[in-house]
Amino acid sequence: MGVSVVTVDLNYTRQGDQGPPLIILHGLFGSARNWQNIAKQLAEHYTVYALDLRNHGASPHDEVMDYPSMAADVIAFIDQHKLQDVILLGHSLGGKVAVQLALSAANRLSKLIVVDIAPVRYTHNFDEVLSGFYHVPLDSIQSRKEADKYLAEKISSPSLRQFLLQNLLSNTSGGYQWRVNLASIDANMHTIMGFTDLSANQTFDKPCLYIKGAKSTYLASRYQPLIAEHFPSAELVSIPNVGHWPHIESPAEFMMCLNEFLNG
């Protein structure tokens, strides 16, 4: 980590108070609350911390949103809570943050779980989602239902809209606001869709699991040699009939994969 990285103090929820520390990092436009059901199940055997990444949930907003900075936030959290041998689980954006941390500070972790993302640059973007966010007239809407009606003009998927609407908050002036820092996410989208350049000697040799949604293209087979190079112990598990959100689309199967890996 470079000395120039400025960290922010991440908001979190904690479940369970026995067993090793397990940290969960959500995906883009998500928050710790998306993971509460999974966290609750894991809390039977682990002390589970679900974090809000910078510019998400109740964590501070910041203009910088690159992977070294986001990984440094998590390391600062680990230090602040005096955690050792952390099991780190990250989905999508959170998966890239987890990979960045694992490759730059492997000594902090005991195991790594990456959900439906590879450490590569993706060519698509989230223009549809961002235009949906911007399309909602926050000052004049009277309800979440009305916000959904505006979102539907830009985003056809009801489940994606419900996910995004978790970011809608009523504010003190009687209107609504978005919890996520849209301006920073929008400005940093090129960086978010990319990844830090990896050198050949950056490896994480400890137990590692990659979970793929079978219908998703985020963990395409062409990325697997790169994963094998930097994560020589990595196992890849594919969950059938699900897309990019396997923990939401098939939670029982997802938990089975986690338990098999964690108890192995």
How would you explain this protein's 3D organization?
The chain has helices at 36-42, 67-80, 93-104, 127-135, 144-152, 158-165, 182-187, 189-193, 224-230, 246-249, 251-262; strands spanning 12-15, 21-25, 47-51, 86-91, 109-115, 168-170, 176-178, 208-213, 234-239. Helix 2 (67-80) packs across helix 3 (93-104) and helix 5 packs across helix 6. The model has no long low-confidence stretch (mean pLDDT 94). It has a 7-stranded mixed sheet with strand order 1-3-2-4-5-8-9. A two-stranded antiparallel ribbon has the order 6-7. The chain has 11 helices and 9 strands. Strand 4 (86-91), helix 3 (93-104) and strand 5 (109-115) form a beta-alpha-beta unit. The protein is globular, with a radius of gyration of 18 Å. It folds into 2 domains: 12-122 and 194-262, Alpha/Beta hydrolase fold, catalytic domain (Rossmann fold, 3-Layer(aba) Sandwich); 127-180, no CATH class. The protein is α/β, with parallel strands linked by helices and 264 residues long. The longest helix is centred in the first third of the chain and has 14 residues, at 67-80.
